[in-house]
Fold this sequence. Notes:
The structure holds three protein chains of three kinds.
Chain A: E1 6-15, E2 18-28, E3 33-37, H1 44-51, E4 59-64, E5 67-68, H2 74-78, E6 81-84, H3 96-102, H4 116-128, H5 144-157, E7 162-166, H6 174-191, E8 194-198, H7 202-208, E9 211-216, E10 219-224, H8 226-229, H9 232-239, E11 243-247, E12 254-258, E13 271-275, H10 282-291, E14 294-301, H11 305-312, E15 316-320, H12 328-339, E16 343-346, H13 357-367, E17 372-375, H14 389-400, E18 402-404, H15 407-414
Parallel strand pairs in A: 3-8, 3-9, 6-7, 7-8, 13-14, 13-16, 14-15, 16-17, 17-18
Antiparallel strand pairs in A: 1-2, 1-4, 4-5, 9-10, 11-12
Chain B: H1 2-23, E1 53-56, E2 62-65, E3 72-74, H2 77-85, E4 92-94, H3 124-130, E5 134-137, H4 142-150, E6 155-157, H5 163-177, H6 180-199, E7 205-212, E8 217-218, H7 224-231, E9 234-236, H8 250-256, E10 260-264, H9 271-276, H10 284-287, E11 291-294, H11 296-300, H12 306-319
Parallel strand pairs in B: 3-4, 3-5, 5-6, 7-9, 7-10, 10-11
Antiparallel strand pairs in B: 1-2, 7-8
Chain C: H1 6-28, H2 36-46, H3 57-91, H4 104-117, H5 127-148, E1 149-150, E2 153-154, H6 156-179, H7 185-193, H8 200-220, H9 222-228, H10 232-237, H11 242-264, H12 270-282, H13 286-310, H14 319-341
Antiparallel strand pairs in C: 1-2
Helix pairs in contact in C: 1-3, 1-13, 3-8, 3-11, 3-12, 3-13, 4-5, 4-6, 4-11, 5-6, 5-11, 8-11, 12-13
Amino acid sequence: MPEPILSLQDITCGYGASTVLHGVSLQVAGGEVVGLVGPNGSGKTTLVRVASRALRPAGGTVRVGGLDTYALPAREAARLVAVVPQDLAPAFSFSVLEMVLMGRTPYLSSFGRGGDEDWARTRAAMVATGVQHLADRSVDELSGGERRRVVLAQALAQDAPLMLLDEPTTHLDVRHVLDVLAIVRRLAEREGAAVLAIHHDLNVAAATCDRLVALHRGEVVATGSPEEVVTADLLRGIYGVEADVTTDVSTGRPSVRLAVPSEPVAPLGRRAHVVGGAGRGARIIRMLAEAGYDVSVGVLHASDTDANAAERLNLLRVSVPPFSHVDAEAEDAVRPLMREADLLVVCDAPFGPGNVANLRLALEAAEAGVTTLLLEQVPIGERDFTGGEATALWSQLRRRARSVGTYEEVALEFR
Amino acid sequence: MRTTRSTLGTALLCLLLLAAACGQDEPAASTRGATASSGAGATGTTGVAEFPVTVTDDDGFEVTIPEEPQRIVTFAPSMTEIVFALGLGDRLVGVSGSFDDFPAQAQEIEQVGGAGEFGVDPNLENVVALEPDLFLTIAGGDPWKEQLRDLDIPVVTFNATDFDDLLDDIGSVGVVTGAVEGAEVLIADMAAQADEIAAAVPARTTCFFEVYFPPLTTVGPNTFIYDLLERAGCDPVTSDAASDYPEWSVDELVRDSPAVYFATVESAKSAEQIGKRPGFDGIGAVANGTVVFLDSDLVTRPGPRVVEGLAMISAALFTTGG
Amino acid sequence: MRPGGRRYRTVIAVLAALLLTSVLIAIAAGSVQISPGTTVRLVAWKLGLAERPDVPVSTEVILFQLRLPRVVLAVVVGLALAIAGTLFQGLFRNPLADPAIVGVSSGAALGAIAVIIAGGGSLLGGLGVSLAAFVGGMVTAFFVYRIARVGPAVNVATLLLAGIAVAAVISAVMSVVMSFAGEEIRSIYFWLLGGLSARGWTAVEVVGPLILLGTAGAVLLIRDLNLVSLGEERAAQLGVDVDRFKWQAVALGALLAGAAVSVSGVIGFVGLMTPHVMRLIVGSDHRRLLPAVLLAGPTFLVLADLVSRVAIAPQELPLGAVTALVGGPFFLFLLRRERERGSARA
């Protein structure tokens, strides 16, 4: 296990009387991109300032490349640690070339104009960030994204084994976010640099970092791979939000979808049952739940979209394994739900041999007197995969139920 | 950058060389050494002035005048008057400014004052251009006096503290200008007149002399004007003043109740105006109109006309039934 | 303006020519009329290039004993004030800083006054006064800086208020100190008004080396000045020893301002205007700015002193009044522009 380039051990520090960090330890190895996440006020910025030699910790050690940076003169420390701040606010304007060249300060003498090495590194940094065509432009004329890349180039020119980034993607549009992160990734992979970046956007952090460290109230509450750290529990625990964490199909990384917190609804005391499938019922389910109904769903296949929606809303559901048939057990489970519902909604889902039983059960309930709505945005003819049985059942349902053509009409029915 | 730096460096170097080349002729310092001097107030010696003379002026500098001065500059109206009184008016080439108004011929002479941060210093260029061989002035202005001395111009400072000192000073002016006889005559004349006035004083009259208002400023016992007041028969109520130009409180003045209240046009416009000042109607002299305006030129310029000032004061005391 | 660009070289050449011309005009012009031709011939003679022209000795004296030292003094004092202004503007990262506004000039004056009253006026041939002015200026500069700092930023409004407040306090202290003064009162008032009359060559000899030293130091700080303009924390991240830089900048600024004040009293606006105007012409890079300021500062003061000498000759206008008449309105204009741009920049 190679010696980590950045080693923070037991860092305790704060401002004035208040302590912000309580014994935080964190390591970053060469070639690793570590993301630092956590809610506002959790101490992320403070921790990075400690690592960048801007804030001396009250307790603990800071080592970069094995050396205590606080014991080094600023010049030598700057050869070890490069910081990419959120933005540069230069009091006076310089050209892009001059700005990037400033990154070579730790290597230049007082009057030095820079040797070949310095110019080469400056050029390389500008090419890597794609700003070489802006060399003579004044920095304050640039757009936000361009300026961010110049700042990054300045840090790249420092040639330091440790790079610290403070919210590198905030205020950038999508294109630039990708650019910046790609540059950082290349830096880690090709030069073996250790990278620690503060991220506010969990999805970006999860997608781009090798490892995540989550801070909460000045303590490390989770550290590990993105999948390990970004969980619904963590989100609930430190951010206080309800979220849906799924694994992104293409990248294998966790993806966070925040649940928009809905206002608590006064229950109507009425029950509704939705027969859905293939996502046709999700909206109805939500509408009914928001209207205050006690909603049940079924019979669905386990990984069906409607099943997920029901799970998220924590609704009563009857499901069977994917691609299997609605069996007698399921039928027995769902029958009372249908019979006792004040409202039964049958959505225009596709019906095949596996779930055509739902229509049969619905017909039973309708004949027993349950108020039934049929949603028919798509004609049954296009949804019948049973060779006609579904169509026949549907026609019979029509005689017992109200047909509606749109979601809005459904809403009108039960308002 | 290299080009710029070398251009810059050369320019700076040239400037410094210029300065160095021009600056370092330290002129021979005025003699401050020990030449056998006759000291200040060599009025005792009769007869012809002998040059060179060395005097110690009232600033403490020993000044040597090599030859009888032909181009004199005075930097105080009092000095101007003295020089004219000694009959040397045609040797006067420079005066301080518009205050050098007596005698009338003085107003024709070139004025060299108005320089410096307060506008009360001589313009050294103009002074040098006049090529003076004697510079007579009163106390104050050490920096420019030092400059003049560095330029080999003899600066002689007089600071008359009282009437007797004034007579001494006139004698010294006679010595440095070569008009020793004329000085002796003037001194004798002035002394006689002063004695006459002093002799005619029947009894002391309390008085108060206002230098300025507001704030009410008067004269303390060590001042020239105070001495004049006493010689003319006054008993100024400010005899216990701590400084030379103290502020005086109106209440105290009401208590002291001087018999005569002296003022000048520089301190007030008229007796009525004085009377209108708050609290002033409590002062006896002001209330009953015993306010006398003196010509300030006659009492503030330590020069030949102070005897007229004495006469004026004395007359005021008589007519107010002091 | 790009490094070493042709436009920059032209500007520098023009400034140098302007300085030289101003110096020559200032030497040639004055209360006493001396023709330019005579001036040139006399100067040539002094440089050993020509025969002595037939002019009275008094003309020679006026030129070389009165005018020349005064003009040279204007050059070095203008240089000192302008460079000090540049340093303070870089240190505070704000173009409204100036030795007088920041209170350094008042502190220097107090230092000078204290020494004069204590009787050390001629200590070390006048050097004692300059050093006391330096110490006074330095202490004041640190004080004002500490007050104006709020965390990592220097708030402009606080800076100006702190400078004014400190100057007011110093003024009060000076009144108290001066009540102990005897005859030195007049010399003391002259620090407050500021001027160059009647100083002579000794003044140049005393402060010249100090000012050249301070200027050399400022040149060495050029790179750090540039980096610190990005913000103190950023400069530190790039490897600048920021604390050491601040000490150096304050010390040099106080040295320059102190030397200037000790010989010419408090002259305002030169330190404010010169770097600011030059920045508008050559840009903010101190590698270009400093040489420009180095030439412009002396030019400004030489011309201001010339105006004060000849405008109402033989009387003189106070030099501080001339610089204020030009500088005051300019300062107000700057303030307005800053407000329109909005906010202090850290």
